[in-house]
RNA sequence: GGACAGGUGGGUGAGUGGCUAAAACCAACAGACUGUAAAUCUGUCGCUCCUUGCGAGCUACGAAGGUUCGAAUCCUUCCCUGUCCA
């Protein structure tokens, strides 16, 4: 899932996303859209889809990640998270209930429960306390969500988020509690917070097989291109990551031959496309030398072209994975990406 | 011809006796980026050497000379640039 925090995947038009990239679903963010432009304004415009002219699916994150990333601008309490706006310092209380309401106003297809995304490393006792709070919040969110009046309720799935730090017993305990909610899908959160990559994989390996197999399983905030098949091999159905879009803007391109840091001097006169094996618009029409020029000149087209490429590269990997599964050749593809087949 | 102002590292530009191999910004080069406070951030950025140390040596603030323990900073002469006046 490409990430479009502020009702835009930075640098792209919805036409890029739906056409060239053929993305089926993108992310939005409750915290950011609540602060600006405001969920009521978006409701006025007929919801996030119409507001941003995106007809396909949208998943909105709850603001739980901002508990992590805006550490210092927030206070976690029993009733919710008290944020101090990063824009102007105003105080806003996010509760499990209000977060459901805001996402109802946004009208996303999948809403996420408010969770506490804790930092890494975190000792067992603190991780336990944090996980238990996340579980209580999830229950409250679901209670509120299910009590929404039928007539005004927007059709929307709500996913709870497994926490528990890097502690196996806490993760398993959390899964047990959340599974009882009978949600339409489940997420694993608290990864991609600075831990070693093998550890993210280890936790996914532990959690994913224990989540309901007939429901979408979503690992939040991962990963590198070569990790995507590995997560899928562990039973992951959904992933999102800012890496393809953010790195594109910063000049780091993912290719079948590894990373290409397009701003490097060695590409000054390079006539080749970013990735000769890629079929994206950028690779079909532009040289590395041209992209490097755009970067050095600070041209905004740079962001557009590189974001198209990186997202296409990610989404192509996912398309290949889906296809290989359908024709029963996923193990071969997994081997091609140099991954070991999981024990489970 | 005259009167002012000024010449600093790739660029802009601070610095007016020692804390200055010289602020800051830009450029250049390299690195980072994981549910986006990110078109952001970090590092390097005169040369050489090594035991890589808040190390040693050399060169450097237009040029040459001088004053001083010590000069980008003060003095003298010269060269150059800009503005204004004739």
Helix tally?
A: 15
- By oligomeric state, this entry counts as single chain
Radius of gyration: 20 Å
**Order of strands side by side in the largest beta sheet?**
1-2-6-7
Based on secondary structure, the structural category is: alpha/beta
| Biggest sheet details | 4 strands, parallel
Average of per-residue pLDDT values: 96
Helical coverage, percent range = 40-55%
What do these coordinates show?
The chain is an alpha/beta fold and 344 residues long. It is 43% helix and 13% strand. The protein has 15 helices and 13 strands. The protein has helices at residues 14-20, 30-35, 39-44, 48-52, 64-69, 96-106, 124-146, 168-179, 197-207, 228-233, 243-249, 281-285, 288-296, 301-326, 330-336, and strands at 25-29, 57-61, 74-76, 81-84, 91-94, 110-112, 157-159, 161-162, 186-188, 217-219, 238-239, 252-255, 258-261. A 4-stranded parallel β-sheet has the order 1-2-6-7. α6 crosses α7, α7 (124-146) runs parallel beside α8 and α13 crosses α14. The longest helix is centred in the C-terminal third of the chain and has 26 residues, at 301-326. The protein starts with 13 loop residues before the first helix and ends in an 8-residue tail after the last helix.
């Amino acid at each position: 899932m490409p990430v479009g925090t502020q009702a835009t995947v930075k640098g792209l038009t919805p036409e890029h996303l739906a056409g060239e990239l053929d993305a089926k679903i993108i992310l939005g963010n409750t915290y950011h859209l609540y602060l600006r432009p405001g969920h009521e304004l978006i409701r006025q415009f007929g919801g996030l889809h119409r507001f941003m002219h995106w007809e396909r699916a949208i998943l909105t994150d709850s603001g739980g990640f901002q508990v992590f990333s805006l550490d210092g601008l927030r206070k976690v309490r029993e009733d919710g998270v008290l944020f101090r706006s990063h824009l102007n310092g105003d105080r806003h209380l996010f509760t499990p209930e209000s977060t459901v309401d805001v996402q109802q106003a946004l009208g996303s297809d999948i809403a996420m429960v408010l969770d506490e995304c804790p930092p890494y490393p975190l000792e067992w006792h603190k991780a336990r306390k944090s996980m238990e709070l996340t579980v209580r919040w999830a229950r409250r969110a679901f209670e509120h969500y299910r009590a929404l009046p039928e007539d005004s309720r927007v059709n929307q799935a709500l996913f709870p988020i497994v926490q528990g730090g890097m502690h196996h017993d806490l993760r398993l305990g959390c899964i047990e509690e959340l599974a009882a909610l009978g949600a339409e899908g489940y997420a694993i959160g608290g990864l991609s917070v600075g831990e070693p990559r093998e550890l993210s994989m280890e936790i996914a390996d532990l959690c994913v097989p224990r989540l309901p197999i007939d429901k979408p399983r979503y690992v939040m905030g991962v990963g590198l291109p070569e990790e995507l098949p590995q997560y899928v091999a562990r039973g992951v159905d959904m992933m999102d990551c800012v890496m393809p879009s953010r790195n594109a803007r910063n000049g780091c391109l993912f290719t079948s031959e590894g990373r290409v840091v397009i701003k490097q001097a060695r590409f000054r006169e390079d006539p080749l496309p970013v990735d000769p094996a890629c079929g994206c618009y950028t690779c079909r029409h532009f040289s590395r030398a041209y992209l490097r020029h755009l970067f050095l000149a600070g041209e905004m087209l740079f962001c557009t072209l590189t974001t198209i490429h990186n997202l296409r590269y990610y989404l192509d990997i996912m398309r290949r994975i889906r296809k290989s599964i359908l024709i029963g050749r996923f193990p071969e593809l997994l081997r091609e990406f140099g991954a070991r087949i999981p024990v489970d």
